[in-house]
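hey all, quick one before standup. I had two proteins in the batch that finished overnight and I want to keep them in one place so we stop losing track of which output belongs to which input. First protein below, input sequence then structure tokens straight from the run.
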Amino acid sequence: MRLETDVRDFMLGAPSIAALVSDRIYGLIRESGAALPSINVQRIHSMRQQLFCGVAPLVSAELQIDSFGIDGDDAWTLAKALRKLFANFRGPMGNSPQTIVDIVFLVNEFPLIDPDPGVIRVVQIYNFWYLED
């Protein structure tokens, strides 16, 4: 769960994201009626490479990052800010001790209608390659 926490901290520390969502970055579930815009982060897949000498320390993890807005413009504006934030990111992420990220890239992106009336969600799937301690 540390990667997800460090990604959340990284997003909260980015002025472009904080200006849009303040501190409304959540885990698996967005409560119905929660203030918008907001972001949800969840890990949907991890892969560790088994080597003859053990498990490689570099892990591939896919995170689903959902941007919620009261209309499509809000959700897509937030999704675009996330795309710019994570584009080819390499380096430390989060607070001490930090997660060392080798590379981040966007795998997929698509809109969905949320069960809450009028709420639009843009789903982005990011692949993070990072060093696991």
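OK second protein, same deal, sequence then tokens:
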Amino acid sequence: MDSIERNVKKIIIILLAAALLGATSANAQQNWGVGVGYSMTTFNGPDCSQFLAKHPVRGFYVGASHEFYFSALAGLTFEPGLYFHYQSGRNDTDMKPKYIKMHYLSIPMDLKYTFNIATGAMASVFTGPVFNVGLIGNLYDKGVFAAQGGLVKDVNDLRGLTRANLQWRVGAAVTFAEAVQLRFSYAFGISRLIPEQELHNNALTVGLGLLF
């Protein structure tokens, strides 16, 4: 797992370098986009508790992205972004707290390839790392879910989730009239959500974007 995280960090550095090259290129174009949509996080891994595995959190995301076009590589772009995710779920046990909450920022850094599919319509596929930073939510707090046995199988480990984690995502988009975009993505957890515990998070997003 540590070697995977090191390799992902190297990829992030390469993508950032690509962004700088694109931004400084005399012929590079740049577009902004804003987006909003549905967001869901599920939890898994050998050490994930049964309680956490059965309680995904759902909500919405909102944010913006900035797309760099490379004149030498038609259709290939670099698209970093910043998104806020508001997620919660109901605790269906008889124990408090009644709601499970996790609100965080995500910073995707995608390489995207776009191609025409019809007059006025384009399709895109993208992939890249996502760095998440937890803001507020009881999933980050120690001991909140002690009555449910904690977040991992070791009932003596009552730590909350770490506030920083890394994912790798893949996705697709369809853009109409170069202005309205439908997007879908799925991110796979790479880093551990609790040190020394194989607990990971996967994230699904489906949303609408506006380009300008």
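Flagging for whoever picks this up: Residues 2-211 form a domain with the Porin fold (CATH 2.40.160.20). The first helix runs from residue 2 to 24.
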